[in-house]
Specification:
With 105 residues, this protein is of the alpha+beta class. The chain has one domain: Alpha-Beta Plaits. Helix content is 36%, strand content 30%. Helix 2 (49-63) packs antiparallel against helix 3. The longest helix has 15 residues, at 49-63. It is globular, with a radius of gyration of 12 Å. The termini are close together. 23% of the residues are buried.
C-alpha cells in the first residue's frame, strides 16, 4: 500500500474549496487527512483512494457544473499525476488512475 498526497483545485472557486474540504472531512477514512490551503490537500493511500474518489464525485454531482483539477504525488517520488474532470466524468476511470499511480514502484 503506497501513500500519497492529492491536491484538489477548483478554477474560479469562490466558496467551493471550503465546502469540498468539509465534505471530505465527513468521511471516516479521510478524517484528519484533509487540509485547506489554496487547494484542498488530502493524504490518501491506494486503499483509501476509493473512499476519496467516491466522495469527491458525490460532491461534484451536487455542484453539477464544477470542474476540478487533481495533482497526485506519491510519497518519496518526484512524479505527479495530473487529472482534470467534472461530475460527468467516469469516477471508476479516475479511481483506477489514482490507485494505479499510487501503486507504482
Amino acid at each position: 500500500m503506497t501513500a500519497g498526497i492529492v491536491a484538489i483545485t477548483v478554477p474560479n472557486s469562490g466558496s467551493e474549496l471550503p465546502e469540498l474540504a468539509d465534505w471530505l472531512r465527513g468521511e471516516d477514512q479521510l478524517r484528519g487527512r484533509v487540509q485547506l490551503f489554496d487547494a484542498v490537500v488530502v493524504g490518501v493511500s491506494s486503499t483509501s483512494a476509493d473512499v476519496f474518489c467516491r466522495s469527491l464525485f458525490a460532491w461534484l454531482t451536487r455542484c453539477r457544473e464544477t470542474r476540478v483539477s487533481l495533482k497526485v504525488k506519491r510519497s518519496g517520488a518526484a512524479e505527479e499525476l495530473e487529472l482534470d474532470f467534472g461530475a460527468a466524468s467516469d469516477a471508476d476511470q479516475v479511481l483506477v488512475a489514482v490507485q494505479g499511480f499510487l501503486d507504482q514502484s
